[in-house]
Amino acid sequence: MKLQKNPCEMVRQLASTNAVVLFSRSDDCMCTVAKRLLFGLGVAPITIELDHHVSGPDIQAWLFQHTDGRQPILAVFVGGKFLGGIETLMACHINGTLVPLLKDAGALWL
Between the CA of residue 62 and those of 23, 30, 40, 56, 103, what are the distances in Å? Predict the structure, then answer.
């Protein structure tokens, strides 16, 4: 898939065409926790490692501006919508709302 050079377009295109998208860093332990949680549930998210992507700093800056002013190291999109970072992902898992969200997005079939 060819990605646009504009960070906004890249994020929107990826989020709108994939059930689950993670913008992550390969050197962050909480990003690893999130990936393992999703893989453990049977979800294979599209993962963009910001520390390895040529537009990583620009994407991270755009995410900061468009996610309530928080500096997300991990940004999770489900069903084309911004879910949140690691705290929101884990809260949804613990309170039982994550699996229904993933099913509604088409990331899980069971």
Answer: 12, 21, 29, 10, 28
Decide: 98 and 40 in contact? Cβ < 8 Å. Answer: no
What is the rounded distance in angstroms from the CA atom of residue 103 to the CA atom of residue 78?
10
Question: CB–CB of 59/11 below 8 Å?
Answer: yes
63, 48 Cβ separation under 8 angstroms: no
Cβ atoms within 10 A of the Cβ of 44, count?
Answer: 11
Global pTM reads: 0.89
Residue 29's pLDDT band, with cuts at 50, 70 and 90, is very high
Residue 68 scores a pLDDT above 90: no
The per-residue pLDDT for 73 is: 77
How far is the C-alpha of 66 from the C-alpha of 60, rounded, in Å?
Answer: 10
